[in-house]
Amino acid sequence: xxxxxxxxxxxxxxxxxxxxxxxxxxxxxxxxxxxxxxxxxxxxxxxxxxxxxxxxxxxxxxxxxxxxxxxxxxxxxxxxxxxxxxxxxxxxxxxxxxxxxxxxxxxxxxxxxxxxxxxxxxxxxxxxxxxxxxxxxxxxxxxxxxxxxxxxxxxxxxxxxxxxxxxxxxxxxxxxxxxxxxxxxxxxxxxxxxxxxxxxxxxxxxxxxxxxxxxxxxxxxxxxxxxxxxxxxxxxxxxxxxxxxxxxxxxxxxxxxxxxxxxxxxxxxxxxxxxxxxxxxxxxxxxxxxxxxxxxxxxxxxxxxxxxxxxxxxxxxxxxxxxxxxxxxxxxxxxxxxxxxxxxxxxxxxxxxxxxxxxxxxxxxxxxxxxxxxxxxxxxxxxxxxxxxxxxxxxxxxxxxxxxxxxxxxxxxxxxxxxxxxxxxxxxxxxxxxxxxxxxxxxxxxxxxxxxxxxxxxxxxxxxxxxxxxxxxxxxxxxxxxxxxxxxxxxxxxxxxxxxxxxxxxxxxxxxxxxxxxxxxxxxxxxxxxxxxxxxxxxxxxxxxxxxxxxxxxxxxxxxxxxxxxxxxxxxxxxxxxxxxxxxxxxxxxxxxxxxxxxxxxxxxxxx
Length: 608
Ligand code: M6R
Fold this sequence. Notes:
By secondary structure, the chain is α/β, with parallel strands linked by helices. It has three domains: about 5-240, Glutamine Phosphoribosylpyrophosphate, subunit 1, domain 1 (4-Layer Sandwich), CATH 3.60.20.10; about 240-445, Glucose-6-phosphate isomerase like protein, domain 1 (Rossmann fold), CATH 3.40.50; about 450-595, Glucose-6-phosphate isomerase like protein, domain 1 (Rossmann fold), CATH 3.40.50. The chain has 18 helices and 27 strands. Strand 18, helix 9 and strand 19 form a beta-alpha-beta unit. Helix 9 (about 300-320) runs parallel beside helix 13, helix 14 runs parallel beside helix 18 and helix 15 (about 450-460) packs across helix 18. The longest helix is centred in the C-terminal third of the chain and has 22 residues, at about 425-450. The chain is globular and about 75 Å long. Bound molecules: 5-amino-5-deoxy-1-O-phosphono-D-mannitol.
C-alpha cells in the first residue's frame, strides 16, 4: 500500500526521500510524488507510474533543493492512478502539503462541506479534503490545526504534513495505518516502514493510534490528538542492514526463499529447550492450556493458508477443534466465540486492516488474542494480548515465502505444546516430532539446491493458460499456497481444489495438456490422490506430482515427479511448498514479470 517518507534536518531532503521511497517500492504503488520547502515556498513534483519517473523529473532530487520535505508512493483507492491524484496534495494557496496512507471514510460529506465553503478540489482523492481542512483550521498554530482535522475525519490515516509558514517543522500522525518516526544526528524522519530509513538510523519510535508528532531538525515531540504532550521511548532496530538488500540475488523473492532454512531455525530454536517446547510469549498456564475448548485462527492470504495447515496440525496433535476464517469474513459475520475459545491471528506485516479489525472484534467480545506476527512493533503485535514472533526478518517481496514458512513453524510449536500439555502426545511421540522439526532447515536447504530441475520444468509452462493444484487434507492447504504463489506473480490463472472435489464441477475445465499439480505427502491419502490424478490424466491433463520419497507408486499416475524428503506428515507443508514456490518464481521470471512487485498488489494491505 502507499508509502510515506519525510525528512527534516541539515541534508538535502529530496535524495533522502527518493531513496526511502525506493525502499518502500515493495509495498506496491502506482504513482509517486514529493513536496520540498525551498526556503521560500513548498514545491511539489508528482507523477503516475514508477518512481523512476519522479527520479528523472527531479534529476534524482537535485532540482528540488531544500532540507525539509515529504514524499509518497500511492496505491490508488479513490481515483485512478494519475498525475493529479498522486500525492502530495496542496491547499488552494499551495502553503500546506499533505501525504496520506489509508482511507478517509467520511470524505464525501467533508468534501461537500468544504465545497460549500468555497474550496475547489482538483483531484478525485479522499486525501485532498485533508489539505483544505488544514487550511480551514490553520490560524497560525499548526499543531492545533492538525488536531482539529483529526477530530473531524473518520477512517484510517498515516500522514505527513508541511506548512510553508513553519518551515522548521513537519508533522506526522496516524490511526490504523502504519507509521514510524526516526532520528539521527543530522535530522528526523517519517516513514511507513523501517527499511525506508534503516540506512540513516536505527533509532525509531512507533507512532501510536491518534498520536501526532512534530518533527524538527534536532528533536521530536509527541502529542495526543488533544494536543497534550506525551512521553515516548525509542526502539533500537537490530536488523542486519543487509536483510533489506538483495545481496546479489536477482530478486528479493529468490533471496527470501533461500533464507528459509535460517528463518525456520530462528523461529524454532529459541523455543526448544532441551526436550521441551517453551513458548514464554504465550503467557498461559498449564491449566489455561487445558481449558482451551476451541481455537479460532483468523488471517488473510498466505497467512490464512498457513492457518488452514494449522487447523490440521492442531486438531491432529492437540485434539482441539479449530475453525479457520478469512479475516475479511470473520469481522463481519458476528462470530460465535464461546467460553474457552482462543483466537489466533496470523500476519506477516502486522498491519493487515482486516486482520487487525478481526483482532479488535475478538477483543471486544472479551476474548484473548494471540498474534503470530513477523513485524516487531506493528499494530497487531501491539494490540494482541500475547505475541509469538516469527523471526523471519524483513520480507520485501510482495509474495511471501520465508514469513509463511515461519508461520508454519509457529503453528507446529503451538500444536505440539498444546498436545503435550493436554496429554494427547506421549513423550515418545513428542520426541520423534521434535527430531523431525529440527531436521526441517537442512531438508529445506536440500530442496532449494534442486532449483535447476524446477527451473527447467517451469520454463515449459511460461505460456500456460490455467494451472490446477489438487491435494487432500494438509496437501489441500499446500495446494492453496502453491496456487497463490503461481498466480500472484506470473498472472497465470490458477486454482487449488481439494482433490475429492474435482469431479463436482472443476474437472470439466481440464483440457489436453492442462497442468495439474497434485500434492501428495500424506501416506494415508496416497491412494486416494492417485485416483484423482488418474482421472485428470484420462482427460488430457499433464500431471506434476509433489510427493514423499517413499511414494514411488505415484510414478504410475504422474507425468513428472518432484520428491521431498521424509518427515512427519504434519510437517510436510514446510517441504512440499519449496518446489512450488520455486515453480511460481521461475514461471514468472520466464515470463518477464516484475516478480517482487506484481501488478495491483501491495505488501501490506492496510485498507479493507
Ligand atoms: O501481512 P499479512 O501476513 O497479514 O498479509 C496477508 C496477505 O496479504 C499476504 O499473505 C498475501 O496473501 C501474500 N502477499 C501472498 O504472497
